Amino acid sequence: MKSDMKKVCPICEKRPAKRHCPRQDNDEICTLCCVEERGPDCAGCTHYAVAQQYRASRRGPATLPDGHFIAELNPEVETAVNHAMDLAERGKLDKAWPEVKRLLREHPGNHTVLFAEGTLHAIQAEHGKAIECFDRAIAIFPYFVEAHFNRAVSYQKQLDVCNAIRAFRKVVEVGDPKEPEVKKAQSFLDDMAETIRRNDGVDLDAYLESQVEFDRAYALMERGEWLSALDGFRAAAAKNGRNAPIHGNMGLCYAKLGHKAKALAALDRALELDPDYGPAKTNRRAVERMEEGRPLDIASFVSTNWSRERFERRQADGFGSRLKRLLGRDRGSSK
């Protein structure tokens, strides 16, 4: 975990250091100096290897292992993008945006330009737009670690914890373990795994699988398909049985199907797991008034979406502040 004080690039002595450079005894330098100083003696460096892939694409058709075409190298564009990011880092969005918009007009399919656009949207807390830009950049160049990282942070800012986990996993998958983004992504995942294991008693994979089942069941419940939704929540509970919203929503389904006793049991289980879980308290009072075998009007109920609700409540107990400290505020990352 880095301190809040940013290290200055030893070459230009003005921009934040970000990338480990073998030529500088593995010291960190800024991204702009990385572009300007890059040469044949950088063999073995991750960024040099990516640049070589770009150059290969200019000599003829080539593809990455997954079938994507290799992105085109344009040093002038990369330098302009880094300059725009420097302006954004200094809070000069009024100057950064015109530069990025010019680049978008001239190079609409360049992944680094799309990354810059996404980063500016993220700085302005327009995280949905930011994710769209990062997705387009990654589609062009799937090994774009910084785009993967900023995409993950944007999901985290949206309180979409499951997509944040998936996105941070991609950072670790495609990045160099020595890169700051990869280290932060792994720290995020380690922190999440510890928190979920402590609170839910499951690992990250089971947590994500349960979320998939929950989302499907929630969509069915919103359409009034109560029996199918109930089956979905049961599947979610089978993968993560210590989640109060799952049992709370099972209670809603049972009540709508006219099963008072089963609805009360499910709601009681939700409150056993979380005595302060408000929707279960509200819904239990409504279920107590229903007759067995007679469905209760759903208008009397409070439903909940697990992922956002869980994350918001963890923000309150300090979980969110731990993530903010963990992610930090490095250049090129969503603010």
Can you tell me about this structure?
By secondary structure, the protein is an all-alpha fold. It is 64% helix and 2% strand. The protein contains 16 helices and 2 strands. The chain has helices at 31-37, 46-58, 75-89, 93-106, 111-123, 127-140, 145-157, 161-174, 180-200, 204-222, 226-239, 244-256, 260-273, 278-288, 306-316, 319-327, and strands at 19-21, 27-29. A two-stranded antiparallel ribbon has the order 1-2. Strand 1 and strand 2 (27-29) form a beta hairpin. Helix 3 (75-89) packs parallel to helix 5 (111-123) and helix 6 (127-140) runs antiparallel to helix 7 (145-157). The longest helix is centred in the middle third of the chain and has 21 residues, at 180-200. The protein is elongated. The model is unreliable at 54-69 and 315-335 (pLDDT under 50).
As a percent range, the share of helical residues equals 55-70%
Alpha-carbon distance between the two ends:
17 Å
The tally of helices reads 16
Low-confidence segments, given as residue ranges, are: 54-69, 315-335
Largest sheet: number of strands, sense, barrel closure: 2 strands, antiparallel
**Overall 3D geometry?**
elongated
Q: What's the overall average pLDDT, rounded?
A: 82
Q: What keyword list fits this structure?
A:
elongated, 64% helix, two-stranded antiparallel ribbon, 335 residues, mainly alpha, 2 strands, 16 helices, disordered C terminus
Question: Which helices and strands occur, and which strands form pairs?
Answer:
Blueprint: E1 19-21, E2 27-29, H1 31-37, H2 46-58, H3 75-89, H4 93-106, H5 111-123, H6 127-140, H7 145-157, H8 161-174, H9 180-200, H10 204-222, H11 226-239, H12 244-256, H13 260-273, H14 278-288, H15 306-316, H16 319-327
Antiparallel strand pairs: 1-2
Helix pairs in contact: 1-3, 3-4, 3-5, 4-5, 5-6, 5-7, 6-7, 7-8, 8-9, 9-16, 10-11, 11-12, 12-13, 12-14, 13-14
